[in-house]
Amino acid sequence: MNIYMGWSNLSEETASIINSYANIAVIIGAALVLVGTITIFWTGGIKEIYTNELISNNKTKAEVAQKEAEKAKEHTAKLFLEAEQARLEQQRLKAQLAWRRLNKEQIIILKNNLNNQINDKIWLTFVGDDPESRLYYEDFNNVFSSLNIPTKFFNGYTMAVGLRILGADSESKSVVIDAFKKAGIPFDIAIESKFNYDKGVEILVGSKPPVFQ
Fold first, then answer.
1. Is this model's pTM higher than 0.70 or not?
2. What DSSP string describes the chain?
């Protein structure tokens, strides 16, 4: 009440002046609000443009990165395939260059199919100056010896290639051929033999065939 009474004591001229300034202040405030609002919308639009551009750039970078990753994955897969092919080729060459030997499975198969089935003498022949031929011959000789099958050996061959089963057709020869087939042993069959016998089987352990034929 006192404040109101104090303001009510103002002169008309002073009240008009204050009213004028107050109106001006309201107008300026309204103008500032309008300018602020316009500025907010304007800068917000600019900000949105930059934001969209940034999102677009990031999306583009992500797509490029994904494509690069896919290329790298394909390249890695190609390198892995080449490495696997090289490994298999190396194993193939290693197997071709390795000396021939009877493995445990082949030995078991031979014993199961030869035991008590051979009635004739077995000639085991090999190339005398070829250590690989002699070692392979010993594998076969050990199989026949373990079964108490009588064998004779001859190492006078100076040149013979591959594994051959020689001699006239007989029941014992058929048994040997069948056992070798079941054991997966590569061999050739022939009738001719340098030995003179009516009944008997010659297993010629020649030198290992050349790697590249």
1. no
2. -HHHHHHHTS-HHHHHHHHHHHHHHHHHHHHHHHHHHHHHHHHHHHHHHHHHHHHHHHHHHHHHHHHHHHHHHHHHHHHHHHHHHHHHHHHHHHHHHSPP---HHHHHHHHHHHTTT--S-EEEEEETT-HHHHHHHHHHHHHHHHTT--EEEEEEESS-BSEEEESS--HHHHHHHHHHHHTT---EE-S--SS--SS-EEEEE-BPPPS--
Matching residue, tokens 């100076």 = 158
Neighbours of 141 (CB within 10 A): 19
31-50 pLDDT per residue, tens: 777 777 787 777 877 877 87
pLDDT band per the 50, 70, 90 thresholds, residue 193: low
* pLDDT tens-digit series, residues 36-95: 778 777 787 787 787 887 787 887 888 888 888 888 888 888 888 888 888 888 777 777
- Residue 207 sits at the vertex; the CA angle it makes with 205 and 208, to the nearest 5 degrees, is 105
